[in-house]
């Protein structure tokens, strides 16, 4: 009887004790919390990588990940499997509308700066970051007093960052975008692919960052921090800790944009909630 392909084989059961060990490892190394209802997601992600490497048991794979430099190389690949890269250009339009309004009407009044610095956290494959860059360029290109803008983008996944840096997307990934923005900021390639123009690419810097290492980030005095669909992966206490650190990196008058519903009943003495429909955002006082 023929052996079924690996992708049709049932997942190996994981005991509660084993699941607890994996929970602790993932949270200790990334801050990501995996509640029990995400056990199947963890098992599927582990099983795919284990079968690719011919590893037979969760224990064997766990030990491999703890095996010095060899384990860290494999860990970098596994982390990419454990982080969801679902994103799209201008994913939450009201939040981008808020950013555009802030740049047009409030930035100089709030900060007095002519150089705009933005930070895209959990940038995945770059759609959010390029959206911010397009938006800023569109807002500032007719402003003679605007000297410069830059977007710093970070993510834990090296493969996602490589894709983001490349800045090449299929036409399907551009669905729903304003055709005028596509014409202005993309070059059409062969096989129905599009590449971000060099003028925009020169404004963006991608870098790997584990949010557990946020204290080591050199970024300070940032005018706009855009952090959406990232906090959902962390425990409540970790979310508050990360947000406190982000507030410290905002320039006075700077804008912090979160995903609606990502934080409930959270406030900070150094922030003021922004009244803008269907958004969750704060300015630093």
Overall 3D form = globular
Question: What is the total number of structural domains?
Answer: 2
Order of strands, widest sheet: 6-2-1-7-8-10-9
- The end-to-end span amounts to 70 Å
CATH superfamily of the largest domain: Vaccinia Virus protein VP39
Which class of secondary structure composition applies to the elements?
A: alpha/beta
DSSP helix count?
10
Q: Could you describe the 3D structure shown?
A:
By secondary structure, the chain is an alpha/beta fold. The chain folds into 2 domains: 16-82, Chemotaxis Receptor Methyltransferase Cher, domain 1 (Orthogonal Bundle), CATH 1.10.155; 93-284, Rossmann fold (3-Layer(aba) Sandwich), CATH 3.40.50. The chain is built from 10 helices and 10 strands. A 7-stranded mixed beta sheet has the order 6-2-1-7-8-10-9. Strands 3-5-4 form a 3-stranded antiparallel beta sheet. It is globular. The relative contact order is 0.13. The model has no long low-confidence stretch (mean pLDDT 88). InterPro entries: Bact_Chemotaxis_MeTrfase, CheR_C, CheR_MeTrfase, CheR_N, CheR_N_sf, SAM-dependent_MTases_sf. Residues 7-285 form the CheR-type methyltransferase domain. This is protein-glutamate O-methyltransferase. It is an enzyme of class 2 (transferase). It catalyses: L-glutamyl-[protein] + S-adenosyl-L-methionine = [protein]-L-glutamate 5-O-methyl ester + S-adenosyl-L-homocysteine.
Quick summary:
This protein is 42% helix and 19% strand.
List the helices and strands and how they pair.
Elements: H1 16-30, H2 39-53, H3 58-65, H4 68-82, H5 93-111, E1 115-121, H6 127-140, E2 148-155, H7 158-166, E3 168-170, H8 179-185, E4 186-188, E5 193-196, H9 198-201, E6 204-208, E7 222-227, H10 236-249, E8 250-258, E9 271-273, E10 280-284
Parallel strand pairs: 1-2, 1-7, 2-6, 7-8
Antiparallel strand pairs: 3-5, 4-5, 8-10, 9-10
Organism: Pelagibaculum spongiae
Catalytic activity: L-glutamyl-[protein] + S-adenosyl-L-methionine = [protein]-L-glutamate 5-O-methyl ester + S-adenosyl-L-homocysteine
GO biological process, one term: methylation
């Amino acid at each position: 009887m023929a052996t079924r392909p690996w992708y049709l084989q049932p997942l190996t059961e994981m005991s509660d004790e084993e699941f607890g060990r994996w929970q602790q490892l993932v949270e200790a190394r990334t801050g990501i919390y995996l509640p029990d209802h995400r056990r199947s997601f963890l098992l599927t992600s582990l099983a795919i990588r284990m079968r690719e490497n011919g590893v037979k048991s969760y224990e064997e794979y766990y030990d491999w990940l703890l095996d010095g430099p060899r384990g860290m190389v494999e860990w970098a690949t596994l982390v990419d499997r454990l982080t969801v890269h679902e994103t799209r250009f201008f994913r939450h339009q009201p939040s981008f509308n808020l950013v555009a309004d802030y740049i047009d009407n409030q930035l100089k009044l709030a900060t007095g700066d002519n150089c705009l610095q933005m930070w895209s956290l959990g940038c995945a494959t770059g759609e959010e970051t390029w959206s911010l860059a397009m938006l800023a360029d569109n807002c500032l290109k007719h402003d003679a007093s605007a000297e410069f803008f830059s977007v710093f983008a970070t993510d834990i996944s090296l493969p996602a960052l490589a894709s983001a840096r490349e800045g090449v997307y299929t036409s399907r990934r551009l669905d729903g975008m304003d055709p005028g923005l596509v014409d202005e900021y993309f070059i059409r390639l062969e096989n129905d692919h599009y590449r971000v123009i060099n003028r925009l690419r020169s404004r963006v810097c991608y870098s790997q960052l584990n949010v557990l290492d946020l204290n080591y980030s050199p970024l300070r005095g940032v005018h706009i921090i855009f952090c959406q669909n990232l906090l959902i992966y962390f425990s409540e206490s970790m979310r508050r800790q990360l947000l406190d650190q982000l507030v410290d990196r905002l320039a006075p008058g700077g804008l912090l944009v979160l995903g609606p519903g990502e934080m409930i009943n959270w406030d900070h003495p150094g922030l003021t909630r922004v009244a803008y429909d269907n958004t969750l955002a704060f300015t630093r006082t």
